[in-house]
Design a protein that fits this description.
single chain; 112 residues; mainly alpha; 5 helices; 2 strands
Length: 112
């Protein structure tokens, strides 16, 4: 099972659209004679996401207390990089480093 963030889904949709436009505008060769396809339609620009919408989407990504406990346990166990843990939880590596260095989520204690 693959879990994607909203930004990853948007990126995939944009790439799929680009591939579809490439296929539609591709030159079709049949029997050795090829006629270039006339471009009648201007390429559609990428969808513009309003700044406020981007901020709102970015704020939706957050950690819950039980996730922070799991992160702290994984960090204490060692053997895993902060980047791997960050990818698993869909957060930036800086967030995991801040948890590791007790700059954020200081009040969450790991049960013994």
């Amino acid at each position: 099972m693959i879990i994607l963030t909203d930004s990853q889904v948007l990126e995939l949709n944009n790439r799929i659209g680009q591939i579809q436009r490439l296929i539609e505008s591709a030159q079709v060769i049949k029997g050795g004679t090829a006629q270039p396809k006339a471009v009648t339609e201007a390429a559609t620009p990428k969808p513009v996401v309003a700044r406020k919408a981007r901020r709102m989407r970015a704020r939706r990504v957050g950690l819950r207390e039980h996730q922070v406990i799991e992160i702290k346990q994984r960090l204490a166990a060692g053997g895993e990089s902060c980047q791997k843990i960050a990818n698993d939880y869909g957060v930036h590596v800086t967030t995991v480093n801040a948890i590791k260095n007790n700059k954020i989520w200081k009040t969450v204690q790991v049960p013994a």
